[in-house]
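Human:
Care to share another protein and its fold?

Assistant:
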Amino acid sequence: MGDGINDAPALAAATVDIAFESGNVTAQAAGAVVMENTLKKIDVLIHLSLATRNIALQSAIGGMILSLVGMGFAAAGCISPVAGAILQEVIDILAIINALRLLWGNEIETDYSRSIEQQ
């Protein structure tokens, strides 16, 4: 993380880099720019990225399991190729709907919000 010109080389070399504010060279070198100069936004960013990763993992594993079950039914001759293709599209739509959970008003619980509730 950085907020000044002297941080730009370190941010350019880092794997994960975050800059505060957008009016300097550091923001151009960083992968992410936080517009508010507060660590609360970093906490939200970390928890949002963890939630995104978990949902992507759920969608990938769930899609693979459902596809394997569908292939098993297709190999046994229980469903036709057209029905198998339609089933695969349904599985894809379920994965997309699962990914959209982040947009449906679920508040991402952060360490900051937990500390406020405890006070």
